[in-house]
Amino acid sequence: MAGTAIGLGNFWRFPYMVGEYGGALFILIYIFCAFLMSLPIFFAESVIGRRTRANAIGAMKKLAPHSFWQVLGWLSVLTPTIIVSYYSIVGGWSVQYFAESFGLRFGEFDPDGWTALGFNVIFLAISCIIVAFGVNAGIEKFSKLSIPLLFCLIVIIAIYSLNMPGAKEGVQYLVKPDLSKFNGRMVASALGQSFYSLSLGMGIIITYSSYVSKEENIVSSGVGTAMADTLFAILAGFAIMPAVFAAGIEPSAGPGLIFQTLPHVFSAMAPSASWVGSAIAALFFLSVIVAAMTSSVSLIEVGVAFLVEELKISRSLACLLTFFIVLVLGLASVFSSKIFGLVDAFSSNVLLTFGALLAVLFVGWKMKREDVQDELTNCGTANRRSFKVIYFLLRYIAPIAIIVIFVSNFI
Ligand code: PFF
User: Fold this and answer.
1) Is 7 in the pocket of ligand 1 (CB under 6 A)?
2) Which of 10, 73, 79, 103 has the smallest count of CB within 10 Å of its CB?
3) Sign of CA dihedral 136, 142, 145, 149
């Protein structure tokens, strides 16, 4: 669960969102959304998955055949495919920066070019090959190593970043909320970011939970995942933002923010021995690539599984087809940062929010209370008191808040 949650959403997307929406206030709202709204949705998806022991489409066929709720299953194919079309572009940037970190010769951040397309193809092709060979287990072992490594590296980067001259302003920016920046779009983006970061609203947690044994406590898994995920995001914020200010970069620079900022940090590390900066940069981008790869593989897998099971084509053909579909879908985003931003915002703030709302409504209002209770309390043996709070959040608070926030996005 932590493997799917922790990814580019934490290292790349969270810092740039914080910069776009003005710092500390966004972080506060994000934490509020993550624990009060996303966590109940995490539980809702876990209940659906573990109850049915099936992927999102299969789960909805079992629980509510031939009904409107099938949409939840369909979204689980559509949304990841759209997301991976630009996720793999960011994966490509990471590959490029990994290559450039040897010798620390980072070029200007130029996300609109043919180079970006080339690296996107490399990243996407490797992801599709992994899915074709079905070596997800190997990738999982790899990510068990890369996530702790990333943790150590991000702490080292944060220490350097915090000690750069002029970094103080960045710290202020992260801890002092500026209430005048409050607006509806900011709250909608914080909510969308918390869905994105926890991999909610697209059936991923449904599928993952279908593999979880009946003895496992899904409430504590959810809390643990949300805490680890939030910790990584905030650490990334502290690693990036002070350096943004120290290097005189605009915090609202958008999706390129970490790629513009980190080279400054790496070259500031041990200036007399530049190989230290090079080594840390290479290790960092390599771990980011692995973290991104574990995510892109699961995003691609849903589409491939659908093609194999529904259209009865071979797995390798399905991977090849998915590769081209995703590549074509992403073409506009590679060449236009405006379209990139639109696809990114639409998929997180609209598609994920819609998917999350459906999941929470389904579990809160359509499923029998006893079934939900059985899953969340392991048949009455755990979380008996917290169940009442969770169920209340599931039925009332989360859906109402999601609708209000969603609407405020457009006002
Ligand atoms: N949660 C991932 C991240 O924060 O990078 C993004 C993601 C990966 C979402 C895989 C969904 C998913 F299936």
Assistant:
1) yes
2) 103
3) negative
Most ligand 1 atoms within 8 A of CB, residue of 11, 297, 299 to mutate? 299
Cα–ligand 1 centroid distance for 308 (angstroms): 22
- Contact criterion met (CB below 8 Å) for 219 and 227: no
Please report the DSSP string for 260-318 in residue order: HHHHHHHHHSSTT-HHHHHHHHHHHHHHHHHHHHHHHHHHHHHHHHHHHHHH---HHHH
Contact 79 CB / ligand 1 (< 6 Å):
no
Q: What confidence score (pLDDT) does residue 9 get?
A: 96
Encode pLDDT of 174-214 as tens digits.
999 999 999 999 999 999 999 999 999 998 899 889 888 99
Dist. CA 78–CA 217, nearest whole Å: 30
pLDDT of residue 34: 96
Could you tell me the CA-to-CA distances from 147 to 209, 232, 252, 265, 338 in Å, in that order?
21, 10, 27, 21, 31
Please provide the distance, in angstroms rounded to a whole number, between the alpha carbons at the two ends of the chain.
35
More confident residue, 392 or 104: 392
Report whether residue 298 contacts ligand 1, using a CB cutoff of 6 Å.
yes
Q: What gap in Å lies between CA 32 and CA 36, rounded to an integer?
A: 6
